[in-house]
Amino acid sequence: MTDTRIRTYSDEREEENEETTTRSAEREQCPECGGRLISDAEHAETVCEDCGLVVEEDEIDRGPEWRAFDAAEKDKKSRVGAPTTNMMHDQGLSTNIGWQDKDAYGKALSSRQRQKMQRLRTWNERFRTRDSKERNLKQALGEIDRMASALGLPENVRETASVIYRRALEEDLLPGRSIEGVATSSLYASARQAGTPRSLDEISAVSRVDKMELTRTYRYVIRELGLEVQPADPESYVPRFVSDLDLSDETERMARELLDSARTEGVHSGKSPVGLAAAGVYAAALLTNEKVTQNEVSEVASISEVTIRNRYKELLEASDTAAPA
C-alpha cells in the first residue's frame, strides 16, 4: 500500500515537471512559426524574432523606475541602503536608533517601552564605538561636520576632510596634538584643495583651537601626509564676498579683472589672498558706482580696513600700469 502511494506521488511529480518543461518550451517558442521569442523591454512586449508576432504585451517592468548611465550613478540612486561615507566613523554601516519615542504608526511609546528603547540606544552606542580609535574618529568627524556647517562648505569638502583625518590617524600623527586641532587642519586643507577656501580667521572663529595652534598643526599635517595644497587664489574668494555684499555681476567681473592685472604686475607676491580679494571687490564696487563701505567689506572678509586701503591702492596702480597707452 505504501509503495503504491510512493509510486503514485512520484508519477504525479514527473507529470508536473513535464508540464512545466512543456510550458517553458512553449514560452520560448513562437506559437505560429516555432521561432525564438525575445523580450523588448522598451515596449514591454515579447515578440518572435523570425516572424515578428507579438506574443505578450503590456508586461510589468520589474526594474527600477530610474535610469543610471554609470556604476557610480547607479549606486547613488539605489534605495536598497544608505551609501557608505567617510564622514561617519563606521562609514554608515551600523544601525542607528532614532531618538523619537514613537512606534511605526507614530503613536507614543509607553513608559516601559521608552525605558527599553533608552537602554537599547545606550548599548548601541557602546557597540558602535568599541575602542579608542573609533571614539577618536567619532569625535573628530563630528567636529568636522559642525565646522563645515558653520562655514557653509559643501559635502565633497567634508568627505575629503574626513579622509585626510583618517590618514592622519593611521599615520599616528595625533600623539601630542589635540583632536580638534588635527580635525580643523584637515578641513582647512580640504577647503583649499576643493577651490572653496576659507581664511584662517574664519576657520579659527568656528574652531575650538586658536589660530596659532591651527597654523602649526596644519603645516605639520600637510608635510607629514605629503598633501599638495596650492596657494589660495584671491579670485576664489570674490564670488562669496560679492554675494554677501549683495553686489552685481558687473562688480564681480571688474574685481576679477583688477586681480588679474595685479597678478600680471606681480602684486600678489607676499600678500594675503583674502586682503587682495576684499580690496578688489571694494575697488570694483567704486568703479561700477555701487555703494559699499570699507567697514562692510571688512566685516565680510574678516580683515582690517587698513589692509583694504593698502591693497586697494596697489590694485589701482597695477591696473593703471597694465592698461594700454
Automatic annotation (TrEMBL):
Biased composition (Polar residues): 83-94
Sequence repeats: 142-225, 236-317
GO cellular component: a single term: transcription preinitiation complex
Coiled coil residues, start to end: none
Residues binding Zn(2+): C30, C33, C48, C51
Region Disordered: start-end pairs: 1-27, 72-94
Ranges of Basic and acidic residues composition bias in the record: 1-11
Top-level taxonomic group: Archaea
Biological-process GO terms, alphabetical: transcription preinitiation complex assembly
Keywords carried by this UniProt record: Initiation factor, Metal-binding, Protein biosynthesis, Repeat, Transcription, Transcription regulation, Zinc, Zinc-finger
Family listed: Belongs to the TFIIB family.
Protein name in UniProt: Transcription initiation factor IIB
Lineage, highest ranks first: Archaea, Methanobacteriati, Methanobacteriota, Stenosarchaea group, Halobacteria
Gene name of the encoded protein: tfb
